[in-house]
Amino acid sequence: SENHFGFQLECNYLESGWLEDQLGKKDPKQYSYSRQLNYMEIPFLMHTYTSIGATRFFLNIGPKFSYLLSESESNRSLVSLLDHGKRVEHPFQYGVLGGAGFEVHMGPTVLGLEGRYCYNLSNIFKDAIGDNFVTSDLQVVTLNLYLLFQLTGNK
């Protein structure tokens, strides 16, 4: 790859979902409904960076694909909405992912922090005319702190 530019392929485990406060409790531990979705995610990202000393600032952007591994929900609500008790109908998801961050290189060790935003272009529930949902795409914001160790090669 070119200096300051390359491609990055990842395999990630992602936990996402949502909480609903239908009872007005204002305390996440007492929310009336929650759903957790666990995905295996494969992003293919364009990676570009610039360095200042041992610090590297970078941007990542590209498509991502994911597959639902499992889902769970908790419902303590007296009101049942359309998505309550409904299983995910489209386990395969695809979307666009972008992120920015920085790394500090300390010999064979790298400490990094990255913020990411992912917009899925697919829906988790059916959305054809006559179905209950117009859209049910997931939007995910993550903050990643990581520590990398180089085992072989250039230091």
What would your notes on this structure say?
This protein is mainly β and 155 residues long. 0% of the residues lie in helices and 60% in strands. It contains no helices and 7 strands. The chain has strands at residues 5-9, 12-20, 33-52, 55-75, 92-106, 109-120, 139-149. Strands 1, 2, 3, 4, 5, 6 and 7 form a 7-stranded antiparallel β-sheet that branches. Strand 5 and strand 6 form a beta hairpin. The two termini are 18 Å apart.
Shape: elongated
Percentage of residues in DSSP E strands: over 45%
Tally of separate helices: 0
Q: Would you list the SSEs in sequence order as H and E?
A: EEEEEEE
Structural class: mainly beta
Level of helix content?
under 10%
The quaternary state of the protein chains shown equals: single chain
**What's the count of strands?**
7
Are there runs of 5+ residues with pLDDT below 50, and where? none
Radius of gyration, rounded? 19 Å
Largest sheet: 7 strands, antiparallel
Average pLDDT over all residues = 85
Distance between the termini: 18 Å
Nutshell version of this structure?
The chain has 155 residues and is mainly beta. The protein is built from no helices and seven strands.
Please tag this protein with its features:
155 residues; mainly beta; 60% strand
Secondary-structure blueprint of this entry?
Elements: E1 5-9, E2 12-20, E3 33-52, E4 55-75, E5 92-106, E6 109-120, E7 139-149
